[in-house]
Amino acid sequence: MQKKFKIHKDDMVQVIAGKDKGKRGNVVRVLRKKDAVIVSGVNIVKKAMKKRTAQDQGGIVEIEAPLHISNVALVCKKCGPVKVGYKIDGEKKVRVCRKCGDIL
What we know:
It is a single chain. The chain has 104 residues and is an all-beta fold. The chain has strands at 12-15, 24-31, 36-39, 44-49, 59-64, 67-68, 72-76, 80-82, 84-89, 92-97. The chain is built from no helices and ten strands. A hairpin with a 2-residue loop joins strand 9 (84-89) and strand 10.
């Protein structure tokens, strides 16, 4: 059975712990097996890449490394980083901000 996360792809999140604390970015990918997310522009690390083809550049590249999902918080447009609640809206279950009640 797959794990359910409150953070999904393309959500705006803020880092709440670690070396990039306070930075914001959009979720590029959710890694369910590792309980991690990759956030654009956050947790940049240098990695040595091997040259694979004749046109490909080898050397040291900067990539976005995964962050544990507990180290990021969803960002509400009004409130900033918030916890997520759920509400039944007709036939759908939607995520809402715990502070102001807006749909995220």
